[in-house]
């Protein structure tokens, strides 16, 4: 019997192979190796990639390590295999190879000895014995959700047939984004415009709808399109590294007419970000169109490489704004009319539509959920939809609706205007009473109204230390408890920012 093909070794001598059994416990050595990894790579990288790397056993000079997922295994093999082996040998010079496998899918059966005639492979090689690199890449990508329809062989996600320009409802908050998307989709082949087009918005506001609509329109012109979520881009790149086919991967990716990347804020890893940056540069320089979506502007993607952020910001950046009440009513009416084609007795009066549009303010997905609840009530009870039944049906959506996404920049602008100082004053080193109190209030509001950490808030306030932010937050919290006028003032600022 053989060990699973998910187990593979990295040899200090240049050979990769599988050895026999015969355990030699080495938990203390492995603990020292992990300490070396943490010290050399830093806590963030160690926690992300090595926190769940465990020692299984050491057999005949081979240290068998395991991780819980294939993606984690592929990443470590592609980026850190040599380093792990070097540090292991520094602690135990009898270890000549490191083998990384996936837990719960590996046996401990002995493997046959390597044939003498088999040529050695370089240390960085991750090809499987007896399997071609291309075959291994296919097996890796096969573990991902299977693409449907016209999905690309790069593992691209399929385009949703429902998400077209025709089904997109235009309002004041999304008109500019729709116009830019339509212009990009209709631009003549080879004449990229607004490159890249960068759309950003909160959840459920229509940015993904526009991405799919662009893809459908361009593909209908016979041009080559690939739509990728950030995780599919990362998986495809790691798979190509694993299979030693990264050059072919890059060439295929850069040979298309339109690249669409959704949720770009999730792209992680230095090497993957570098490749993403190279892909952007290559496509833009060759006149190919790129469309990107994220949940925030390029400048706010602090985990993304600065050069990539700069490249993304160099195109047209458009925010898809929050849905206003008129647009919410239009979305509700359109959805109700579509359902009436299937359920002719489904009637929702204008007063109910107005109530739901006024009450559900978070995003389009909540509006969809509200209509589905009204339909369920009508079809399951057989009674009409009244204001009372609508209120009962959507109660959970009202209680759990998401607050408006508040930006630190908006907080700074509002507080500065309210206290008759400039935003630059708030960001400056000035310590006069007229500036310090507004600055502390702005820091306090940034802490309670955003998900930003104290260090992030400090950076947004002129590069201040997180302890300064913490001091400001505590001081305003104490002042609010003692000064009712200040408390009312801060509550008013909160409401103004959240409306």
Overview of this structure, please?
- This protein is α/β, with parallel strands linked by helices and 499 residues long.
- It folds into 4 domains: 8-130, GMP Synthetase, Chain A, domain 3, CATH 3.30.300.180; 175-319, P-loop containing nucleotide triphosphate hydrolases (Rossmann fold); 325-400, Helicase, Ruva Protein, domain 3 (Orthogonal Bundle), CATH 1.10.8.60; 408-498, Orthogonal Bundle (Chromosomal Replication Initiator Protein Dnaa, Chain: A), CATH 1.10.1750.10.
- 51% of the residues lie in helices and 9% in strands.
- It has 22 helices and 9 strands.
- It has helices at 27-41, 43-50, 70-79, 81-91, 133-142, 175-186, 207-220, 230-242, 246-253, 270-285, 306-313, 325-340, 350-359, 364-381, 387-393, 395-400, 408-418, 423-427, 433-449, 454-460, 466-482, 484-498; strands spanning 8-11, 54-59, 62-67, 97-102, 197-200, 225-229, 258-262, 289-294, 316-319.
- Strands 6-7-8-5-9 form a 5-stranded parallel β-sheet, with helices on both faces. The protein has a 4-stranded mixed β-sheet with strand order 1-4-3-2.
- The longest helix has 18 residues, at 364-381.
- The chain is globular and about 80 Å long.
- The N and C termini lie far apart (66 Å).
- Mean pLDDT is 77; it is low at 1-24 and 105-155.
